[in-house]
Every structure is written in C-alpha cells, then in structure tokens.
Specification:
The complex is a heterotrimer of chains A (669), B (182) and C (435).
Chain A (H helix, E strand, L loop, with lengths): L7 E6 L2 E6 L4 H7 L24 E4 L6 E2 L10 E3 L3 H16 L15 H9 L17 E2 L4 E3 L9 H9 L6 E3 L6 E3 L13 H5 L5 E3 L12 E6 L8 E7 L2 E7 L12 H5 L1 H5 L7 E4 L2 E4 L2 H15 L3 E5 L5 H15 L4 E2 L8 H8 L7 H6 L2 E5 L3 H4 L1 H14 L2 E5 L1 H6 L1 H10 L10 E6 L8 H14 L9 E5 L5 H6 L20 H9 L5 E5 L10 H13 L2 E6 L4 H6 L2 E4 L8 E4 L5 E4 L12 H12 L8 H11 L8 H4 L6 H9 L1
Parallel strand pairs in A: 1-5, 16-17, 16-22, 18-19, 18-20, 20-21, 22-23, 23-24
Antiparallel strand pairs in A: 1-2, 3-4, 3-5, 6-7, 7-10, 8-9, 11-12, 12-13, 14-15, 14-24, 25-26
Helix pairs in contact in A: 2-3, 8-21, 9-21, 9-22, 18-19
Chain B lengths: L2 H11 L9 H12 L4 H11 L3 H8 L13 E6 L2 H4 L3 H12 L5 E6 L11 E3 L2 E3 L7 H10 L35
Parallel strand pairs in B: 1-2
Antiparallel strand pairs in B: 1-3, 3-4
Helix pairs in contact in B: 1-2, 1-3, 2-3, 3-4
Chain C lengths: L17 H6 L4 H8 L2 H11 L11 H7 L8 E6 L8 H8 L1 H15 L3 E6 L4 H16 L15 E6 L9 H8 L23 E5 H13 L1 H5 L9 E8 L5 E6 L4 H8 L9 E5 L19 H6 L8 E6 L4 H15 L5 H19 L4 H14 L7 H15 L1 H14 L18
Helix pairs in contact in C: 2-6, 2-9, 3-4, 3-6, 5-6, 5-7, 6-9, 13-14, 13-16, 14-15, 14-16, 15-16
The chains are: A alpha/beta (669), B alpha+beta (182), C alpha/beta (435).
The complex binds flavin mononucleotide (FMN), iron/sulfur cluster and FE2/S2 (inorganic) cluster.
C-alpha cells in the first residue's frame, strides 16, 4: 500500500518561515520551527484527532475563528500565530477551565513533576484561578484493575484512555459514562479493566487520574533515573525505559520505536518487573550431599570446568531465549572450540536443514514491522501473537483499522494442503490496477519445529515465491521465533548445524531433542543450560517426559538460572546466578533482523556476575582463552564473526538498533 | 433471553448499513421489557448486537430517556424549561412530584424543553403530551395514568388546531382525541 | 401575507393520510421533479434562496451542491431532533402533514443523488414518530419510497430513527454519531458532512421545515418562491411563539414581517398590564433583544445586525414580572445539562456559570462575580468544538450586558437577605496559585 509521502511546504509561524511536510498537523509542524503548541487530547497514536480539549487553539490568517492546531493540516503559505493576545487568552482560559474541576492535589499525586497538566498550567496558564465554587466529587482512588488505579477527580476528560481501549486495543471495555460535566471514565458495571495491553493507559493519561498501583507513592520524578533498554520477555522486544531508584526497577515505560513497538507495551512487559527482582538466585551453588549450597565463585567455576573437561565432546548445551547474542556465541565457542562438542541448540525442537535456515533468513525476504501496517494483506501463519510477540497484535489491528490491510489467518495444514487458496485470498487484497500486492507473511517458528518442519519451511518459501515477495518492496516474511532472542541466537551460531552467521560447520551436532535422547541413553554425560529450563520450556508432554529422564540420567547439569525452578532444584549440579534483562548488557535480535542493545539499568543481585564473564571464565579453566575481558569485547567478537554484522559497533546500534539488511543497502548506495 | 426482544433488536439491526446504528432502538426495546437499562438488559442487547456491554452502557448513560437506575413504570416528564417555567412549570413539577409521592409506579422527572411550549406548562405522560396544565389537573392526570385511561383527553396536544389565524384555507374542526397514542 | 404554504391545510382532518394529502395536490411536486433532471431540481432550490430552517440559515441549494457527484453511496438525513428550547414547529408539521416532509425529502434526495435517508426524530416525539412511520408505510406502498421511484430510476430507502433524549443530537455531527449508534458527541469539522458524514459517506442534512418547504418550491418554481420574503431571507417561515404571550403557538409568516406584528399582532403580546422585558428571537440560544428591537423586521439579517439571530425561529417572550436572573439560570442550567462533555470550555464553562448564578441567588456573590461571569462567557465563545457552548454564552453574555444593573441589584438584595450586607466588596478572587 502506498505509504503517506508528503511534499515539503513552507509556512509561517510566529513570524518565522518553517518548512514542513504538507498536511502534517500544525502542532507537529510547529515543532519543526521550535514552537510548542500545548496539547492534551492530541495523540496521533490513537487515530484521528478529536479536538476535545481545545488546548491547542491558534490563529490562522484568513480564518476568523481560532483553530485547533492538532487537527489542522499545514499548507503551503499558511500563516500561523501562536503568540497573539487572542491565542494567549484562549490558552489561559482553557487551562483555567480544566482546573475548575481539578483537585490540584499535586503534592500527593504520583504524576507530580512529570505531569503535562502541571507543565502546561505553568507554561500557558493564567497564573491564578478565579474559581471559588465547590469542585466535582468522586470516590477516590479506585482500583480500575489489579494493576491500575483511577482517580476520577483528577481526570480532565481528554478521551485518551477510552480512545486507546476502543481504537488501539480494540477491547472496547473502557468508556465514558454519563454526559457533560458528569462524564467519567469507567468499565461496564464496575468490572475490572482486564486486557493484555491495559497498562498503556497509564502512560497515556496526561494527569494523575490513571496510575500504576505498583508504583503508587514509590517515588517522585526527581528521585529516580531513567534507563533505556529492551524488554526480552517475548520476541517482540519492545523498547523500554526503566525507572530506577536505589538499584531497583520501579516502573517500565515505553520508549517509542516506530519499527518495533509503536510506543506501546504489553502488560507482561510493563508489570512483570517486581517478579524479576524477587526470589532470585544470588550466589553460585553446588550440589553437595543432595542439596544445592552456596559456594564461592572460584569453587563453582573450577568444579564446572573440571566436569566439562571430563565430559568433553559428550557435552550438550541448550540456550534459552532470554540469552543475548554474545552469550550464545561464547557458549558456542566453549562447546565447539573448548570441548570439541557440536551439540548446541537454541530451538525448542526439530532441526531445519541449514539451506532452509539460510533461505528463510535471506535479507531480501525479510519484512519489517511497519510493513505489517501498510501491507495490502498479512498472512498470519501459526502464530499466537499475544503470548509470542504481544505488541505486534496491536500493529495488525492498526493495519486493519487504519489502512484497510487484509488479515488472513491460516494454519500449517492450510499451508501444506491448500496453498493455492491462500494465494488467491491474499492476492485479492492487491491494488485494482493489477500491480503486485504487498504481502507480509507472519509466521510462527512452530511452523517449522514439528515433524513436518522442513516440509513446512519449503512450502513457506514456495509461497513466498508465488507471491513474488522477493521482488516486491514492503513485502516479506516475518518470523515470530518461539523464544525471545531466537533469531539472534541462531545468527550467533547457537545451532547444531550452523556456526555464527549461519556458517557451515564441519560436523553437525545434536539438536535439543537428540541431546535429551543421548543423555537418557548415556551417550552424553553433561548438560549445559544457559538460561534454559527444558521442563518448563518443553514443547509438549512427551518432550517433558523425555527431558525428565535426560536430566535424571545426566552425570552433570550446569545451569545459569535466575530462579530455583523444579528442574534446577532437583537436577542441577552447578548453578550460576543469572541476570534479568534490566541487569544485562549485550545485544539481541528482533524478529525482523534489527540488532538491539541491552543496557544494564540496575546492578545484579548478590554476587551475580554477567553470563559472558562466567562463560569466559569457565572456558579459560577448560583451557581456552576466549580473549573477552569486557562485555564490549564480547560484542566485538560477535560482530567480527557474523558476516552480516561486520563493521558494527555498539555505538552504531545505539538506542534504536540497526537492521543489517538496511545497513547493507545504505552502505552499498 | 426473551425471544421477542431478540427478534425486535435483530429487525432494527437489519435496517441500517451498520448494525450498530440500532443501539438506541435496541436499548429502548430492552428498556420496555426490563423496565430500565439494567446491567442484565445491557448484556442481553450486547450479546445480540455483538458489541461490548461497555459500549452500550456508554450510550445508555448519555441519553435522558434511557434509565440506568430502576424507575416506576409510568413516566411523567414535566417540562421545566424556559417557556414552560415562565408559565408556572416549576410549581407544577413540584406539585406533581408531591402528589405522586413515593408511589413506585411513577417516574416523575423535570425535563428539558419537550417541544410543546404552545401548551405550556405541559407534561409528557407515558409519551402523551398534555397541557396547558393547572394544579387542579394533577389528580386526574395521576388517576387516568394509574387506571390506564387516556390521560386528560381534553388537554392532549393532538386535539389542538394550529394557533396561526392565517393558516388553513378553510375551517376545520378540532381533532378528536384519539386516546392511547395521543 | 398572501397564502400559507406549509400551513395551508394543516388542520384538515386526515391530512396525515396519503389519501387526503394527495387530494390536496400531494406528491404532484415529486412527479414534476422526477420528470426533470436532478440538476434542474437543484437549480430550482438554488433559485428559491431557501435558507436552512434548523438554526444556521445556510442556503439549502448550495449545501446540496456541495455533495460530490458520482455513484458513491450518499445519504440524506432529516434533522427532526427539534430540541432548541421554545421550538415546536417541526412537531406541528410532522404530526399533521408528514407526507409533506416525506415528499420534500424524496425530492431533495433526488437532487443530491442520495439513495438512503433517515429522519432522526427526538425520542420524546412519540406520537409524531408513529405518524411518520404510518406515512412512510403508505408512501412505500404507493411506490414513492423504494426502488426506481415512479419509473424515474431514482431509488430511496427511508428509516424513521428515534432519538432518546439529548439536545446535542440536534447538532448535525452529534446527530450523525447518534445515528451511528454512538454517544451523540459532535465531531470535529472539517471534514464536513457533505464530504464525510454518515458512515463516512457524503451526507446532506436538513431540518424538517427546510425539507417540507421543498414541494412548495417545486410547485411554484424557485423564482416565484424567492419573491416572498426579503432580499436575503426568502420565503415563509414557521415561527414558534411562546412564553409570556396570550396566544402561544406556531405561525407561518413571510420573512421580514415586523417582529412586533408577530409578537403582538399574532401572538397577542404579554398579558394585560405587562410589558415585554426581553425576547429571544431564535430559541434560547439567541442573545436576548429588548423592547426597542420590536420593530425590527423578523429576518436573518435584521436579527444578526441587532446582535442576535433568527435561529430556529422560536420567539420566547419574557415580560417584566420575571427577574432576569431566573431567565439566566434556566438557560444556563439547560446548556449545562445538555453539554456533551467532550470539549473543555463548554463542559466546564456551563458548570461554572450555573454555580456563579446560583451564588448570586443565594446571596454569596459580589459584583466582581458579574465580571468573572461575563469573562467566562467570552472565554467560551468561539473556543468550543461545536456551538453548544456559544449557545449558552451568547444569551447569558447578552443578559449581563443588557441587564447589568438588575444583576447588581439582585446581588445586593440577596446579600442583604443573607445577612452579609451590600456595598463595596472584596473581589471573589481565589488566593491559591494554580499548578
Ligand atoms: C447545539 C445545536 C443544536 C441544534 N439542534 C437542532 C435541531 O434540533 N434541529 C435542527 O434542525 N437543527 C439543529 N441544529 C442545527 C444543525 O446543526 C444543522 O445546522 C441543521 O440541521 C441543518 O439543517 P438546515 O440547513 O436545514 O437548517 C442545532 C445546532 C446546534 C449547534
Ligand atoms: S461545545 Fe459542548 S456540546 Fe459542543 S462539543 Fe463541546 S462539550 Fe460538546
Ligand atoms: S490537543 Fe487539540 S483539541 Fe486537544
């Protein structure tokens, strides 16, 4: 679908000529000339402007009435005034009206210090109020849900939260009830607002009406620091800003990235942080007389190295989805170079021939996130987005709602047995003039992890061929890996049949399931788990049983873990405390290929050490010097080893990440 | 749920290019059945219309004629807007309220302009417009309503000729009150 | 005036039936219109100079011409919400001559190329809606509504849609949202309904009286119609006169008739011994006029020039027995009750104004409050999303401007009653700093 493309025009604002894309809303265009027009209800992420709050009134030459800058598209030659007496009076009066019913309880309000109403009152308000009447009263504060509190007296009825529920999350649970000054935000019959993405309303609220119950009274803005990172709780890898106080994450906010999350977070990403900090393993542990006991790092590392050396090529390793590229890469080196074992896997099940991995990862075939929004059609194949890559669910809704994208859902069986039907349905959505349709195939990794995995992968490639995806701009495949950093770990070489950058290996190793079988049969003796828990992560019941036997039979189980899960408590022999994502550094790869950077926001608990460091230390004791003294060096090694990352630096990745596919074209052109 | 209500709502939905347009008629129909737009009534309508109950609650609470609290089955809207109030509507409203007392069958409300200022002060009794009302009319108004008789037949708006002396090319008799529907 | 157009046979028994309406020449205009082209019909409408009768007075023909041409789905919506206080003319028409409205609506749909139409009637008009439904059934049976009307190739569906009690649904975009099954919140304009209205499609919205006038225009010819009235206010107009007059009711007048003739001549003026204190020329949303304005011709221009407006054509007369404060409170409370709540100045400004007026009455106000109240009205005007806010602020502003002395006296009297004493007083400024 053609994306909005605007020619540049020149308009005048407060006497200065400014260039802006034609039809950009005036409030945004004004910013290009360093003019700030205050807004409350305007939020383009919520759809068309509603013009409700009236805060953005400006004067436009030739139009008698003041106009809302949030809904006025800028045109060539437009002359705008935001400083005239009329505009000032209008702005002051809107602020005064908004405060008529606002309790001004800023000293006890969680929003205090980061409140748009406070800021705008200060910047554009009348400085005093003439309102002496009784204000509107509501019971306050109430629980809107387990996570969110609502204080209706503070609400300025800006419509943001209800528009979000209705037009973004599309759950239509949050509404305004009653009319006029009696209107208030509510759910039906006082039910809690339960939805996978409910927490975004807290960030949208421009006052302290919707607040996080967890964060309530925890801190004031001047006590805290913000730290940008990437949430690795699912494959969507939303960009987050972590609010930190005294080495604790108090809050997770969105860090708007149009090509990743569109500024939203799911509730798991937003509210899971307290659980990331509790009941953690904080010391190295060794099984001693059947019990795991805390020991010194020296002991744990020595013991691990001794046992690994003993097992040598009879070692297998599993890498969990929360591991960084660097961790997966270094563990690959430990196994392949240090122990001569090719048995490493990061996929939950099944092996895919290397050619298929390569073909599916072909740069020309990769869709980016925004393609989901503008495609003529999206085929969602075997993906369940809310658990697997939550935030993309909102992107699909946006595509359908705002751009008329056609969404087709299909299963593995549809792909294998009725591909022609799929193609027909998808092509129907194409442009009337017969030009080729822009189609994105969003496919879940589980498509290729079953017994028919290779066949499915081939069918997927065939489908891509029939749809002409490689030759169409803004079309592509987008894989939703079963694990958060699934893509990155594959690229880093955490696969039994591929090294870094999907390079060929001399000898294919065992995949995850084969490792389990070999352990059960005694063909392997040692299992190295990097943030992986084969019992909780098992694909199915059979898999779980198999792993139960494998763990019981293994001579040695070494594990990096955050929590003492059943598998660890019962089977691990050596446990290294592992980090949660807010504590980690390194890189991960988004499903669309974007390399993103994790930055530690808080210190690791107790005696925990970074995984890269632990792996390097163990490897050294095994007899191989990885030459990694800092996290940065680990990243550099990875970049050097993976051809498509070559020349990358952490600085280049920065806060927004880098897509190697685009980088290649940028460098080439 | 009541199958007639479901059929009624579905018939309304079929009238519009977008079935959500039937929200008001559907809620009105549910109100006739349930007496008010109770949470149960709203959930039933939501189920038939395929919208969330919250959507309908937002609609129901916006409109004055949709009751979101239980009310008496006979609605008496006394207009107390400007034209009626200039002619004594506030006293009338107070008197009707008092006369109806706490009889649970009556839902006496002061209402915004009902569009019948020519018979001010007036009231809409279960949808039938009557006026000009005096305090003396109140007992009969309530009695007629209780008994299910046409309310104040002589004072029903539908019987009146237009005030304009230049209207009508010929003489016409006043309309007879048609009872029931006014 | 020569002859009533809309009220000619208004009280004829059975006029609401197709039978009697047809005997009086009903649906002849429709036949005539369908025999010519939509462009010709539009030309007649433009020539007639008919201006919208719903309040804004926008030229009807021009509005029709704004609709995009072509075969896209277009809609016609008749605004029968009639909720402007003091207005009851559409009620009389719908109840007594529903076919006149339906005929006009079909002709307008033909000119506009609309194939689906709706009459949005306020829920309180139960009887009138029943009458319209019955008339619609007759018109459908007679082939005036439906596919290929009278073999013309023009098709039209019509649904009578009942509202449920909300003044804001008379505002055209609030009406559209309501008709789409939502809360009746006004929409931001642009886009205007002519481009993106009902279900996002081009939509023509007209008042009942506007549409009901169309058959007369087609019958007489646009130019002939334009001979009635004044230069810029053509034709006849239904005027609802209410309040302190001896014969309240609807009158069909030729635009430009002296206001005094309507209020005194037709409606009988205030009761014996009373004088006109002020009058609303166009519903409670219009700024009040005083005695000295009674000789103004009743038309769009003259009312605008006098600082008010013709609005919906509802004259409300207040005589000298009524304190201005009572009038102001009634008006302000109405708009507070009806504000949809979407935009800030209207929602908060109406609430605030009522509270100040109530304080005046309670005897806790000071003259400073009049200043504040006047400035609050100024801050509402022109700053709202739709004009409901202005619809309170303009009349209240006019009352403050024209009856300031009386407000001050009222404050003083109420304070004395309240034991607070009159005299120069502390300004009622809050001491707190905002933020
Ligand atoms: C608050 C408000 C209430 C209105 N109420 C009505 C109404 O009840 N009936 C009506 O015809 N127009 C009403 N209008 C005017 C309509 O918005 C619109 O201008 C009119 O229906 C257009 O029809 P016309 O051009 O035939 O007058 C109202 C406008 C506002 C701002
Ligand atoms: S002016 Fe009043 S009625 Fe109109 S949009 Fe604003 S709040 Fe709603
Ligand atoms: S930001 Fe423009 S009206 Fe609210």
């Amino acid at each position: 679908m053609p994306r909005p493309e605007a020619k540049t025009i020149t308009f005048t604002i407060d006497g200065r000529e400014v260039q802006a894309p034609e039809n950009m809303m005036l409030v945004d265009a004004a910013k290009l000339g360093d003019v700030e027009i205050p807004v409350f209800c305007y939020e383009p992420k919520l759809g068309n402007p509603v013009g409700a709050c009236r805060m953005c009134l400006v004067e436009i030459e030739g139009i008698p009435k003041l106009q809302t800058g949030c809904s006025t598209p800028v045109k060539d030659g437009m002359v705008v005034n935001t400083q005239s007496e009329r505009v000032k009076i209008a702005q002051e009066s809107v602020v005064e009206f908004l405060l008529v019913n606002h309790p001004l309880d800023c000293p006890v309000c969680d929003k205090g210090g980061e409140c748009p109403l406070q800021d705008i009152t200060f910047g554009w308000g009348p400085g005093k109020t003439r309102f002496v009447e009784e204000k509107r009263h509501f019971v306050k504060p109430l629980a809107l849900s387990e996570k969110i509190a609502i204080d209706r007296e503070r609400c300025i009825l800006c419509y943001r939260c209800v528009r979000y529920s209705q037009e973004v999350a599309e759950d239509y649970q949050l509404v305004l009830l009653e009319r006029g000054a009696h209107s208030y935000v509510s759910t039906f019959d006082g039910n809690p607002y339960e939805a996978p993405f409910s927490g975004n309303i807290v960030e949208l609220c421009p006052v302290g009406a919707l607040t996080s119950r967890d964060y309530r009274f925890r801190a004031r803005p001047w006590d805290v620091e913000d730290s940008g990172s990437v949430c690795t709780l699912c494959a969507a890898q939303c960009n987050v800003s972590l609010t930190v106080r005294d080495e604790r994450v108090l809050r997770v906010l969105a860090r708007d990235h149009a090509e990743v999350d569109d500024g939203w977070l799911c509730d798991r990403g937003r509210f899971a942080y307290p659980s990331l900090g509790e009941d953690r393993i904080t010391h190295p542990l060794i099984r001693d007389g059947g019990e795991l006991r805390a020991v010194s790092w020296e002991r744990a590392l020595d013991e691990a190295a001794t046992r690994l050396k003993r097992a040598g090529a009879q070692t297998g390793a599993l890498v969990g989805g929360g591991a960084t590229n660097e961790e997966g890469f270094l563990l690959g080196r430990l196994l392949r170079e240090g122990l001569d074992s090719p048995n490493i896997d990061s996929r939950v099940a099944g092996t895919l021939p290397l050619e298929l991995h390569r073909a599916l990862g072909e740069p020309g075939l990769q869709a980016k996130v925004s393609d989901l929004e503008f495609a003529h059609a999206v085929l969602a194949l075997e993906c369940d987005l809310v658990p697997d890559a939550a935030i993309l669910d909102l992107r699909l809704r946006k595509g359908v709602r705002r751009h008329g994208m056609k969404l087709v859902r299909a299963s593995l069986a549809d792909l294998l047995e009725r591909p022609a039907e799929l193609v027909a349905k998808l092509k129907e959505a194409g442009p009337a003039d017969g030009a080729s349709a822009e189609i994105v195939v969003l496919w879940g990794e589980r498509l290729t992890t079953g017994p028919d995995g290779a066949r499915a992968a081939q069918a997927l490639l065939d489908l891509a061929g029939t749809l002409g995806i490689a030759d169409t701009d803004n079309a592509g495949l987008l894989e939703i890996p079963a694990q958060s950093n699934g893509r990155g770990l594959r690229e880093a070489g955490a696969l039994p049949n591929a090294g870094p950058g999907l390079s060929s290996v001399d000898e294919d190793g065992l995949d995850a399931r084969a490792i389990a079988q070999a352990l059960s049969k005694g063909e392997l003796s040692c299992l190295y788990l990097l943030g992986a828990d084969p019992l909780t992560g098992a694909a199915d019941e059979l898999d779980r049983e198999l792993w139960g036997r494998a763990l019981a039979n293994a001579t040695t189980v070494i594990s990096h873990a955050m929590f003492l899960t059943d598998a660890i408590r019962e089977h691990a022999d050596i446990v290294f405390p592992a980090g949660a994502y807010p504590e980690k550094e390194g890189t991960v790869v988004h499903p669309d290929g974007r390399i993103q950077r994790l930055r530690p926001a808080v210190a690791k608990p107790g005696e925990s050490r970074a995984e890269w460091q632990v792996i390097a230390d163990v490897t050294a004791r095994v007899g191989l010097d990885l030459d990694v003294l800092t996290g940065g060096m680990a990243s550099q090694q990875l970049f050097d080893a993976v051809p498509q990352y070559s020349g990358l630096t952490l600085e280049e990745i920065g806060g927004k990440g880098v897509r190697p596919q685009e980088r290649a074209t940028a460098v080439a052109s | 749920m009541n199958t007639e209500l479901r059929a009624d709502i579905e018939a309304h939905m079929a009238l519009y290019p977008d079935s959500r347009s039937a929200a008001l008629p559907a809620l009105e129909a549910a109100q006739r059945v349930h007496g008010w737009c109770s949470p149960d009534a709203i959930e039933e309508v939501a189920e038939v219309m395929g919208v969330t109950p919250a959507y309908l609650a937002a609609v129901a609470t916006f409109y004055d004629m949709l009751e979101t609290e239980p009310v008496g089955k006979h609605s008496i809207y006394v207009c107390t807007n400007i034209s009626c109030s200039l002619r004594g509507a506030d006293a009338l409203h107070a008197a009707v309220s008092e006369a109806a007392g706490d009889d649970p069958d009556f839902n006496v409300r002061s209402f915004e302009c009902l569009g019948a200022c020519d018979i001010a002060p007036m009231a809409s009794v279960d949808g039938v417009f009557v006026g000009p009302l005096t305090l003396e009319d109140i007992p009969q108004l309530l009695d007629d309503t209780r008994a299910g008789r046409p309310v104040l037949p002589e004072k029903q708006l539908s019987t009146r000729l237009v005030a304009d002396p230049n209207a009508n090319s010929r003489e016409f008799p006043a309309h007879a009150a048609e009872g029931g529907t006014q | 005036m020569t002859e009533a157009l809309l009220f000619k046979d208004i009280d004829e028994p059975g006029l609401a039936t197709l039978d009697v309406y047809a005997k009086r020449g009903g649906y002849e205009s429709l036949r005539k219109a369908l025999a010519s082209t939509p462009e010709d019909v539009l030309a007649q409408l433009e020539a007639s100079g008919l201006r919208g009768r719903g309040g804004a007075g926008f030229a009807m023909g021009k509005k029709v011409s704004f609709l995009p041409k072509g075969t896209i789905d277009k809609y016609l919506v008749c605004n029968a919400d009639e909720s402007e206080p003091g207005t009851f003319k559409d009620r009389e028409l719908m109840q007594k001559s529903p076919h006149m409205l339906i005929e006009g609506l079909i002709i307008a749909s033909y000119a506009a190329g609309a194939s689906r139409s709706f009459i949005y009637i306020r829920g309180e008009y139960v009887h009138q809606a029943d009458v319209l439904d019955a008339a619609l059934a007759e018109a459908t049976a007679a082939g005036y509504i439906g596919e290929n009307i009278l073999g013309s190739g023009h098709s039209l569906s019509l649904v009578v849609h009942r509202g449920a009690g909300a003044y804001i649904c008379g505002e055209e975009t609030g009406l559209l949202d309501s008709l789409e099954g939502k809360r009746g919140n006004p929409r931001l304009k642009p886009p205007f309904p002519a481009n993106q209205g009902l279900y996002q499609g081009p939509t023509l919205i007209n008042n009942v009286e506007t549409l009901a006038t169309v058959p007369a225009i087609i019958r007489m010819g646009g130019e002939k119609y334009a001979e009635l009235g004044t230069e810029t206010s053509k034709g006849t107009k239904l005027v609802s006169v209410s309040g302190h007059v001896q014969r309240p009711g609807n009158y069909e007048i030729e635009l430009g008739t002296p206001s005094r003739e309507i209020i005194y001549g037709l409606a009988g003026g205030p009761p014996e011994g009373r004088e006109v204190k002020c009058w609303f020329p166009g519903g409670s949303s219009s700024p009040v006029l005083k005695q000295e304005d009674l000789d103004l011709p009743y038309d769009f221009e003259a009312m605008a020039k006098a600082g008010s407006m013709l609005g919906s054509g509802a004259i409300i007369v207040v005589d000298d027995s009524t304190p201005i404060l009572d009038v102001a409170l009634k008006v302000a409370k109405f708009y507070r009750h009806e504000s949809c709540g979407k935009c800030t100045p209207c929602r908060e400004g109406t609430t605030w104004t009522v509270k100040m007026l109530e304080r005046i009455d309670a005897g806790t106000a000071t003259p400073m409050d009049i200043e504040i109240m006047a400035s609050v009205q100024e801050h509402i005007i022109g700053n709202c999303l739709c004009v409901l806010g202005d619809a309170m602020a303009m009349p209240i502003g006019s009352m403050i401007a024209k009856f300031r002395d009386e407000f001050e006296e009222h404050i003083e009297a109420a304070r004395i009653r309240n034991g607070l004493g009159a005299g120069a007083l502390e300004p009622a400024l809050a001491t707190g700093v905002t933020g």
